[in-house]
Amino acid sequence: MRIDLHTHSTASDGTDTPAELVANAAAAGLDVVALTDHDTVRGHAAAVAALPEGLTLVTGAELSCRVDGVGLHMLAYLFDPDEPEFARERELVRDDRVPRARTMVRKLQELGVPVEWEQVARIAGDGSVGRPHIATALVELGVVGTVSDAFTPEWLADGGRAYAEKHELDPFDAIRLVKAAGGVTVFAHPAAVKRGEVVPESSIALLAAAGLDGIEVDHMDHDEPTRARLRGLAGDLGLLTTGSSDYHGSRKTVGLGEYTTDPEIYGEITRRATGAFPVPGAGGRGPA
């Protein structure tokens, strides 16, 4: 089985619609794909409706969190999307994305970048606006060469010149909320140092003690020594280890299935989940 547990669609900051994403996942030879848009579940219904036969969909979300001033992302899988408290918290995070993005646009303008809000809004479309949309605007303007080049202290990285904070969950609260909704939590790309400051291993140990299920190890932003260190840490803490592409369509160079999760780990994730279940494809309508 080929299993990719971290992808994004146009419901947040990917470039594939949910229907296109599942079609492309099947074409890439995946057996299982997780749709984990940022702080939203809006793409799930369209992905399910278009799910090709032979592909299983894991519903999820990537939650924006912050602890001790350091940002982190928490992948949540197979939770009940209608659990009231968790749904309210996701809405708070989503609602703060527009004013935060407007603030970053203003900061860029103050730095002499001729970016306009209308340009960012066009790029975001119906998705939850975020830094990748602003980064894409910087690419269009020729300010940076790639989206990744915008995530530096000079521009949009945490603490960067144009960075602005938004409402984010405490990761301990995120674990509690996801668990209460029957879901499973995995700390996304925990050692992606090129994105900015990362949480120390001591904090990961505290998160594990609070119920964190796993950490994402095989990821494009982790080199081989980092992956080996994370596997050792996961073993010490009793955490599951996952691998994922963090696919964003054409917004990133990584392809679907470039990094994958062991089938036994996937099986354990599904065994722990009680809020929702993987959806087997029965032949959808195709991309829309």
What does this structure look like?
This protein has 288 residues and is an alpha/beta fold. Helices cover 36% and strands 15% of the residues. The chain contains ten helices and eight strands. Strands 1, 2, 3, 4, 5, 6, 7 and 8 form an eight-stranded mixed beta sheet that branches. Helix 2 (44-49) links the parallel strand 2 and strand 3 (56-67). The protein starts with a strand and ends in an 8-residue tail after the last strand. The relative contact order is 0.20. The model has no long low-confidence stretch (mean pLDDT 95).
Topology record:
Elements: E1 3-7, H1 18-27, E2 32-35, H2 44-49, E3 56-67, E4 70-77, H3 84-95, H4 97-110, H5 117-124, H6 131-140, H7 171-180, E5 184-187, H8 201-209, E6 214-218, H9 224-237, E7 240-243, H10 263-272, E8 279-280
Parallel strand pairs: 1-2, 2-3, 5-6, 6-7
Antiparallel strand pairs: 3-4, 3-8, 4-5
Question: What is this structure, in a nutshell?
Answer:
With 288 residues, this protein is an alpha/beta fold.
Mean pLDDT: 95
* Main beta-sheet strand count, sense and barrel state: 8 strands, mixed
Which structural class do the helices and strands define? Answer: alpha/beta
| Cα end-to-end separation | 27 Å
Uncertain residue ranges: none
DSSP E strands, number: 8
- SSE arrangement, N to C: EHEHEEHHHHHEHEHEHE
| Alpha-carbon Rg, integer | 18 Å
Helical amount among residues, as a percent range?
Answer: 25-40%
Classify the beta-strand content into a percent band: 15-25%
Silhouette: globular
Supply the number of helical segments: 10
